[in-house]
């Protein structure tokens, strides 16, 4: 009987995913409890149709370099020791270092993230994005620019790595799940293209 799943590479049209549902199952509860308490979660604002709105989630940018998106720049928070440790685990799995991470806190199923690609120029061509999920399981949607769609279930302790040309040909989103009462934390690790 196999108790622990193995990481599996899924090949998509113009992209690759490493999918490992219980990668961190043994640590996920402790990680969630600590990060919920000790990350300086912030409510950021976004511009939508000419109006400023609260982002439908809390977040925190951490690492070695500032994060630019939607024309704004965020200074990084210093590495939290546990987040640094997780970055080290991911480096061994993915075979490359990570020097920045966006932490997202979805307070319940009303929180979400819209369609986007992680294609900031800082990340360079074909970036590897390693995403760790803690807490409530949520749907994760992928869509290719020619129409193909995929859906994954991101559960507590899972790892999803987007690699290859994913960020150039696919977008991803975390839709609302109205009846989900529980919190989810997600960490998406990235690497600044000028380093490592
Ligand atoms: O919460 C998630 O699983 C997705 C987060 C994401 O796409 C991002 O931070 O760029
Ligand atoms: Fe993303």
UniProtKB/TrEMBL annotation:
Keywords, alphabetical: Dioxygenase, Oxidoreductase
Pfam family, one: 2OG-FeII_Oxy_2
Cross-referenced InterPro entries: AlkB-like, AlkB-like_sf, ALKBH3, Oxoglu/Fe-dep_dioxygenase_dom
Ranges where the Fe2OG dioxygenase domain occurs: 97-193
Keyword Oxidoreductase: yes
Gene Ontology MF, one: dioxygenase activity
Protein's UniProt name: Alpha-ketoglutarate-dependent dioxygenase AlkB
Organism whose genome encodes this protein: Oceanimonas smirnovii
């Amino acid at each position: 009987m196999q108790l622990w799943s193995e990481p599996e590479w899924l090949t998509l049209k113009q992209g690759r995913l490493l999918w490992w549902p219980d990668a961190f199952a043994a640590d996920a509860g402790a990680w969630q409890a600590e990060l919920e308490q000790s990350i300086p979660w912030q409510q950021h604002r976004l511009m939508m149709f000419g109006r400023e709105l609260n982002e439908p989630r809390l977040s925190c940018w951490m690492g070695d370099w500032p994060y630019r998106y939607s024309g704004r720049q965020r200074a990084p928070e210093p590495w939290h020791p546990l987040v640094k440790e997780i970055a080290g685990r991911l480096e061994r799995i993915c075979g490359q270092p990570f020097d920045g991470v966006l932490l997202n806190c979805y307070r319940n199923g009303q929180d979400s993230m819209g369609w986007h690609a992680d294609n900031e120029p800082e990340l360079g061509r074909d970036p590897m994005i390693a995403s760790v999920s803690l807490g409530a399981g949520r749907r994760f949607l992928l869509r290719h620019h020619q129409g193909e769609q995929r859906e994954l279930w991101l559960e507590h302790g899972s790892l999803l790595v987007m690699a290859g040309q994913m960020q150039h040909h696919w977008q991803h989103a975390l839709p609302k799940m109205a009846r989900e009462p529980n919190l989810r934390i997600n960490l998406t690790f990235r690497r600044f293209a000028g380093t490592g």
